[in-house]
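Try this one yourself first.
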C-alpha cells in the first residue's frame, strides 16, 4: 500500500474515524457494535452469552440479518441473563418460535436454552475457557482476506465446548465468538480499533 492510500477494507465513517468497511459509514447498530463490542475483551457473563447466541443464530445467515435483530434477541432471551434463560421451559421455546421479531428457528432457540444450562454447570467455566484461548496480536491484519474463518485454536475450543454440552458451536461460529468477545482483535490495519492503533484499550 502506498503512502496516503486508504486500505479498501477500511472506510471513513460518519464521524471522520476510519473503520473496518463491514461496519459501514453510517451511525448504525452494526457500526456501534463494531466500535463498542467487537474485539473488546469482555469478562462479563451476559456479554459472553450474547456473543455465543448471536453466533448460533448467524449459522447459515449473514451478520447483517442477525445484528438487525439484536435488540429483539436481548428482549426474547431476558437480556442474556444466563440463569433466567437456563430456566426457560418448552412453553417458552414454543412462544419464541412464534415471535416474528427474532429468527424463528426452533433448533437455534432450543440450543440457546441448552447453552445457558451448559454455562451454568460446565467446568471449567466459559470465562476460564475464553481466557485460555486468548490470542495476543502484535500486528493487525492488513485486509479482510487475511482473516481466517477458523483456526486450530477455534477448532480445539469448539471441541471442548461440545464436550460440555454446548450446541451449534462449530469452529467457524466459535472463531466468530472469539472475535466478538475480544479473545482476538481482528480489526483491520487502519481502523481506529486495530491493534496497531491502540484499539485493544477497554474491557467490558
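Now uncover the answer:
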Amino acid at each position: 500500500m502506498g503512502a496516503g492510500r486508504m486500505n479498501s477494507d477500511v472506510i471513513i465513517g460518519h464521524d471522520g474515524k476510519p473503520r473496518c468497511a463491514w461496519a459501514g459509514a453510517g451511525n448504525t447498530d452494526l457500526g456501534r457494535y463494531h466500535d463498542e463490542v467487537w474485539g473488546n475483551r469482555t469478562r462479563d457473563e451476559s456479554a459472553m452469552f450474547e456473543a455465543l447466541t448471536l453466533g448460533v443464530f448467524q449459522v447459515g445467515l449473514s451478520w447483517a440479518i442477525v445484528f438487525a435483530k439484536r435488540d429483539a434477541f436481548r428482549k426474547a432471551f431476558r437480556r442474556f441473563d444466563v440463569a433466567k434463560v437456563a430456566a426457560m421451559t418448552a412453553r417458552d421455546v414454543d412462544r419464541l418460535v412464534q415471535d416474528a421479531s427474532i429468527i424463528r428457528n426452533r433448533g437455534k432457540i432450543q440450543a440457546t436454552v441448552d447453552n445457558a444450562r451448559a454455562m451454568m454447570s460446565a467446568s471449567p467455566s466459559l470465562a476460564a475457557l475464553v481466557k485460555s484461548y486468548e490470542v495476543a496480536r502484535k500486528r493487525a491484519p492488513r485486509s479482510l482476506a487475511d482473516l481466517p474463518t477458523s483456526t486450530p485454536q477455534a477448532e480445539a475450543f469448539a471441541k471442548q465446548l461440545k464436550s460440555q454440552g454446548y450446541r451449534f458451536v462449530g469452529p467457524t461460529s466459535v472463531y466468530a465468538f472469539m472475535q466478538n468477545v475480544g479473545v482476538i482483535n481482528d480489526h483491520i490495519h487502519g481502523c481506529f480499533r486495530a491493534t496497531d492503533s491502540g484499539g485493544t484499550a477497554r474491557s467490558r
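Discussion: Confidence is low (pLDDT under 50) at residues 1-5. The longest strand covers residues 10-12.
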